[in-house]
Design a protein that fits this description.
37% of the residues lie in helices and 19% in strands. The chain is of the alpha/beta class and 187 residues long. The protein has a 6-stranded mixed β-sheet with strand order 1-4-3-2-5-6. The longest helix has 16 residues, at 97-112. It is globular and about 55 Å long. The two termini are 32 Å apart.
């Protein structure tokens, strides 16, 4: 059982782990980046060679896109940003139309840059088709962790919360989500 082995290894390594403060953002994350911060982050993705991304949307409208830069070769975790596009009620996040356009252009450049690997959970089932329907192109090597999870352990749940807990020791954060749903709150 992959779950038993993973949890036993964790318990043996640290029987009394320190739990993260879930009221605080993860270290090295920027929840309210400026346009300059977004472009600096794009440079980090290029330098490290990979980035994970997750689209949160309401219908066809992206609310935000979370992006974390990392290195596949060294396991280095780089910075994370939450690129915002909409606020509650559907209004644009960026006050000035020119900033909204610049943020959208950043997202286009991030997605269409073939120089680094992009990783998404359920990317081929949700994120990429939604983005492409809006006119974005996703270029370069793209990995889908939901497909990888199913291929590795077809008998286990493939939802993001379960997979993050199993493989990354991440705390459960989606308290209001139906954990039986593969898409876990998408769409």
């Amino acid at each position: 059982e992959p779950c038993q082995e993973t949890y036993l290894r964790r318990l043996l390594a640290d029987p009394h782990p320190t739990l993260p403060d879930l009221t605080q953002p993860p270290p090295n994350s920027n929840l309210y980046p400026t346009i300059k911060d977004l472009y600096d982050h794009l440079q980090a993705c290029r330098r490290l060679g990979a980035a994970s991304f997750d689209v949160e949307a309401c219908g066809p409208w992206p609310i935000c896109v979370g992006v974390t830069a990392f290195s596949l070769g060294t396991s280095e975790i780089g910075p994370s940003v939450c690129a915002r596009f909409r606020v509650r009620g559907g209004a644009r996040y960026w006050g000035a139309w020119s900033d909204h356009v610049r943020a959208t252009r950043w997202l286009y450049e991030f997605l269409s840059d073939p120089s680094f690997t992009k990783v998404a959970h359920n990317g081929t089932g949700f994120d990429i088709p939604e983005l492409e329907a809006l006119g974005f192109r996703v270029e370069g090597v793209t990995l889908d962790t939901i497909m990888m999870a199913h291929a590795a352990y077809a008998e286990l749940p493939v939802g993001l919360a379960f997979q993050a807990n199993l493989f990354c020791d991440a705390m459960f954060w989606k308290h209001l989500v139906d954990t039986d749903a593969e898409e876990e709150g998408k769409g």
